[in-house]
């Protein structure tokens, strides 16, 4: 999922009312998709998940190991810790668990959003999400 203006804007519009949970669903037939997902989680360990996420989207398809390590350096991460995380496969189980979850609910498109169980497939404008969120918050009495 791209953390574009819509997602960031929604989080700013509804502080303390909504929660964003991101799950990884790397494409099976794309080179480096799994290691890229692991790289985003390795960056999360150092507080730079969204920064890594955004650079991966912007620089795709250049997502080989050497490029990921270079991006970590650009972001000011501890490169040794980052490299150890991706080389050891420390986050491989997390990514695989996300893939299993996606497959268990027959999810095959990214990005896919769930708002209180309401599925939204694909990028949508801010107002589209806002309408659904407002409906759900009103129903919940919030």
Automatic annotation (TrEMBL):
Chain coiled-coil ranges: none
Domain of life: Bacteria
InterPro entries per UniProt: Thioredoxin-like_fold, Thioredoxin-like_sf
Pfam annotation, one family: Thioredoxin_4
Keyword flag Oxidoreductase: yes
Gene Ontology molecular-function annotations: isomerase activity; oxidoreductase activity
Keyword Disulfide bond included in the entry's annotation: yes
Keywords: Disulfide bond, Isomerase, Oxidoreductase, Redox-active center, Signal
Domain Thioredoxin-like fold: 6-135
PANTHER family: DISULFIDE BOND FORMATION PROTEIN D, GLUTATHIONE S-TRANSFERASE KAPPA
Family, as annotated: Belongs to the thioredoxin family. DsbA subfamily.
Protein name according to UniProt: Protein-disulfide isomerase
